[in-house]
Amino acid sequence: MKYWNRFFLLAICCLLSAVLSGCATVKEMGKGFIGVSTQVLEEKRKDALKKSFVLDYDGCYVKVKEILKGNVKEKESPVYAEDAKKKMIAVYLTQIDTTPVGIFFTEEPGGNTLIEISSPSIYAKEEIANRIFTGIDELIKPKVEEKKINVKEKSGN
Predict the structure, then answer these.
(1) 145 half-sphere exposure, CB direction, 13 A CA radius
(2) Which single residue of 17, 130, 153, 157 has CA 20 to 30 Å from 89?
């Protein structure tokens, strides 16, 4: 019995040292175990749905967070991870459906922002992309129409 206790203690020490030393695979295993890993979202990023917006990074980020809250509780997509370095938000499709979806932001020249939506599920990726892309388009549309009206007024039409 003493040997099992020593073995168990040694195993725990090895695991803790691996985690504390920065071993990425052990960290990802731990995140996967508790349900907050984003590795699959990063791997699926190459197949992401993408759209660029005439909106700065901060504006896009705030609007996306607002859209994810949803106007109906069942449509809310809870955030389970955020990474400022990777400029990424990881969400579950809905409160009930815990399919992971990743939202990546890339700042582009001219103050534009590229948004990429990735997921292991095509349905989840398309659903979140549709909600976000439509929501941001609706935000930007009034500004574009306002500019057109101002141009017409200046030209005298």
Answers:
(1) 6
(2) 17
Q: Do both 28 and 41 map to the same domain?
A: no
CA 105, CA 33: separation in Å to the nearest integer?
Answer: 26
Dihedral of CA atoms 13, 19, 20, 22 in degrees, nearest 10, equals 140
> Domain limits at 12?
1-34
As given in the structure block, the two tokens for residue 37 are 């890993």
What is the CATH number for 150? 3.30.310.220
Scan for tokens 């932001």, then name that residue.
105
Q: What is the pTM of this model?
A: 0.68
Coil, strand or helix: which one is 145? Answer: helix
8 A C-beta contact, residue 92 and residue 98? yes
Q: Which residues pair with 103 in a beta bridge?
A: 89, 117
Of 88, 85, 122, nearest to 103 by C-alpha is: 88
Tens-digit pLDDT string for the chain (157 aa): 455 556 665 566 555 555 555 544 444 444 443 445 688 899 989 999 999 999 999 999 999 998 888 765 667 888 989 988 899 999 998 878 889 999 999 999 988 999 999 999 999 999 999 999 999 998 877 665 555 555 555 555 5
